[in-house]
Amino acid sequence: GSTSPAACAVAAAAAAAGGGGGGGGRGGGEEARAATDRIGGDMAKKGKDPVVATLSGALAGMVETTVVWPMEYTKTHLQLDKSRRYKGMVDCARQTVRAHGPLGLYRGLAPVVVGSFPKAGIRFGAFNYIQTQLRLPDGTVTPARNFASGLVAGACEAVIAVAPIETVKTKLIDGNKPFMTGLREIIHKEGFRGVYRGVLATIGKQSSNQGLRFMAFGMYTNYMTRDSPGRTLASYEALVGGMMAGCFSTLCNNPFDMMKTRMQGLRAGEYNGFVDCFLKVVREEGVLALWSGTLPRLARVVPGQGVIFMSYTKISEMVAAGLVAKSEPDTQVWYSWDPSHKLAQFSSQRSGRWEGQHCFSVGVASCAGIEKR
Fold first, then answer.
1. Which SS3 state, helix, strand or coil, does residue 353 take?
2. What does pTM read for this prediction?
3. What is d(CA 163, CA 299) in angstroms, rounded to the nearest whole number?
4. Rounded to whole angstroms, how far apart are CA atoms 50 and 127?
C-alpha cells in the first residue's frame, strides 16, 4: 500500500525523540514511545476535527468533479432529452464532440468546480460533526446513525450550495452557453429565484444520496477493519468502498436526480412543483422514465465516489499531519510516497510498542530521497 503521511509524522517524531545516533538506548526508547503516543493521539484528534474534515472534503471534491465531468455532462443531456435525440451515452458524447469539439464535453464545468469546494466541504464537515454527536458511549456508530448523519449533511449541502450550482449547471448544458452568458440570462429572465429552481427535489436527492453513501461506506469500513478497529483504509480500499457506495446510492435514488434535472432545465415552467413533475413524468413517459440517465450517472458517480473517498482519506491525513507539525514546532514531519520504505505498517502500530532504535532506524529511512515539509 502507499505510505501514510500520518505514519511518517509519527515515525519522524519518534526518531527525533530517539536521540542523535543509532544507540538511542533504553532512555531513547522510552522517549520515542512517549513521542509516538503523543503525536499519534494528536493526529487522531485532528483527523476527527470538523475543520480538517471540511478542508479535506473541499479539496477532494474539486479533484472528483474535474475527473468525472464528461460523464456528468452526458448524463444531464440524456435526462433532458425528451425527443430521444440521443441513442445512449456514447452517442451523446459523439454528437457533442462533432458539434462543439472535445471541450464541448466540459461545458458548465466552471461553476461546478468553483461550487464543489464549498459543496464537498459542507458535506464532509457537517457529516463529521453530526456523526461525532451521534456516537454511542463506546465510540461506535451504527449504520442507522451514519445514515442520519449523511441525511442531515446532504440537506445542508443542498440548500447552501448544490441547488444554485446545479440549477446554473443544468441550464448552461441545456442551452449550451458559456458560464457568464448563461448566468446573466437566468438572472435577467427569472431573477435570483431562478437559481433555486427544484430546491425540494435537490434536497431529496442530496440528503438521500449522502445518507446512503455514508451508511454504505461506514459498513464497508467496519468490515474491512474488523481485525484491527481504528485502522485507516489504504488508498485502494477507500477507492473500492467509495465506488460501491456510489453504485448503491445511484440505483436507489435516481428518480430524485431525474426530476431535479427536469425542474432545473430550460423547460422547468412545464412543472408546477416536485409532485406535479413526478406525476407528469409517470403519466406521459412511464415509471421507467424515472430511471433515465442511470447508466451515465453510474459511469459518473461510481468512479467519482471512489475518487472522492480515496482523496478525502489521504488529504485528511496530510492536513492532520500538517496541523500536528504546526503545533509541535520542534518536530520535523517527513512525507514519503515510496512503497519500498514500507512505512505504511506504522499506521496500524501507533501504540508505541517498538524499541527506540527501531523507531529511529525507520525514521532515518524515511528521509531517503523525499521532500521535506
1. coil
2. 0.62
3. 22
4. 9
